[in-house]
Amino acid sequence: MPQFKKVLIANRGEIAMRIFRACHDLKIKTVAIYSKEDLYSSFRTAADESYLIGENETPLGAYLNIPRIIQIAKQHNVDAIHPGYGFLSENGDFARACEAAGIKFIGPTSGVLDMMGDKLSAKHLAQECKVATIPGTTEPLQSKEQAQKLAFEFGFPVILKAAAGGGGRGMRRCDTVEEVGINYDLVKAEAKKAFGNDDIFMEKFLVEPKHIEVQVLGDEHGNLVHLYERDCSLQRRYQKVVEFAPAWSVPESVRAELHADAVKIAKHVGYINAGTLEFLVDKNGGHYFIEMNPRIQVEHTVTEQVTGIDLVQAQILIAEGYPLSDPQIGISCQDEIKVNGYAIQCRVTTEDPANNFAPDTGKITAWRSPGGFGIRLDGGNAYTGAVISPTTTPCW
Question: For residue 97, is it within any domain?
C-alpha cells in the first residue's frame, strides 16, 4: 500500500508538534506553514520544511487561507494535509479543495464534514438514529426577535451556540430575554470571526450536567470502533480545562449506552478516521447528543494513555488506506480494545487569575518541563525566554 512521503500540517502550536512526532515515527517528512507572527514559534523549526503564509493577513486569516495552503502543498509535492484541530479541521470546503488538488485530506470526507461539522446537521442525523438531543432550534436563528421569542418557549436558561466549529467559542448562556438580545449579536460575531460562519442556534441549557465524549475510529473498509469515553465536565467559559478517562463518575450502564449511540451515529454517516461524539448526561442519568467533532481533539491524549492506541498515527495510516486490523494500528475487533488504568489531562494556558482569567502575555522567565513515570507533556510554544504575544498565546 503506498505510503505518504510528505505531509503538510495546516495548523500551529501543540497540535502541529504532535502530528510532526507521529509523522516522524512513520518516517514521513513534514511541512509546516506559519504566519509572520509565528516566525519564532517552536513548531516552525520542528518541521522538515516550513513556509510563510498570509504575509499581509491577520494570523487567523493566514491559517484560514485555503487557496494559499493548497498552493504551497502543490508547489512542494505534498501527498496529504493534516488539519489538526480548530482552523480548517471541520471545513468541508477545505477537504474538497484537497480532493480537487489530488491531495489526501487526513480526516473524514468533505461530505461527512458538511454533515457533522455543522452542529444543526449533526443533531438532525442523531435524531434519525433515534438518539436523544437537547430541545432546541433545528435551523439557524434568523433574528434577535425570533431568538427572544423561542427562549420563552424553551424556558430559561437557554444557550446560544455557533453552528460551526467548537472549542467553546461562540457559546453564551442566557438567563433573561435581555441577555438573549445582548448576546445574539455577540455570538454571531464570535462565530463569524472564529469559523467564517455566523449561523447560530439555541438550546435549552442543562444545569450542571456531566459532559462525556466518546472517541471513535473508522477506516475506509467499513470498520468502525469506539475507544471508550472521556469526562470533560470541568470547564471554564465552555472551554475544557481538565479531562480524564475513563469517565468513572458515570454509571457503567450509561457509559455502555453512550458507546452504542456514538457508534450508531458514526456508522450511519459512514464515518472514516478519528472523531468524537459529545453528550451531556443529566442528574437523572438521561443522556443527550450535542455534537460531533469530526477531527482529532486536544484531549485525545488521555484516550491514547488508557488504550495504548496512537490516534494520530492511526489517522495517517487510515488516510493511506490501511484497515484498522493492520498490525500498525492493531485493532481487529471492538473486543480487543481494553482500558488500562486512568489518565488525566490538565491544560496549562497563559491567563491572569487576578483579571478574571483573561488571556495574558509576556516572556516566560522560567520553564521546567514536567517528567517522571506516567507523565506526558504535549507542548506548544513554551520554553524559557519564549515571548507570548496576543497572537501566539499557546495551549500545552
Answer: yes
> In sequence order, what are the residues at sequence separation of 6 or more whose Cβ sits closer than 8 angstroms to the Cβ of residue 317?
26, 326, 328, 329
**Identity of residue 58:** T
Q: Give the span between the Cα atoms of 94 and 202, in whole angstroms.
A: 27
* Cis check: omega of the bond before 135, within 30 degrees of 0: no
If one counts every other C-beta atom within 10 angstroms of the C-beta of residue 138, the result is 11
pLDDT of residue 392: 61
How far from 106 is each of 275, 311, 322, CA to CA, in Å?
12, 12, 13
184: domain range? 135-204
3-class state of residue 13 by DSSP: helix
Is 59 part of a structural domain of the chain? yes
280 CA to centre of own chain = 17
66 versus 165: the higher-pLDDT residue is: 66
pTM of the model: 0.89
b/e map of 166-193 (b: 16 or more CB within 10 Å)? Answer: bbebbbbebeeeebbeebbeebbebbbe
- Cell match 425570533: residue? 146
pLDDT in tens, 10-43: 999 999 999 999 999 999 999 999 999 999 888 9
Q: Which three cell numbers stand for residue 323?
A: 484497515
Contact 199, 236 (CB under 8 A): no
Catalytic residues: 295
Q: What CATH code is carried by the domain that includes residue 240? A: 3.30.470.20
Write out the three cell numbers for 45: 523549526
Task: Write the CA distances from 288 to 17, 173, 304, integer angstroms.
Answer: 34, 18, 25
102-134 b/e (C-beta count within 10 Å ≥ 16 → b) = ebbbbbbbbebbbbbbbbbbbbebbeeeebebb
Closest CA to 262 of 370, 131, 100: 131
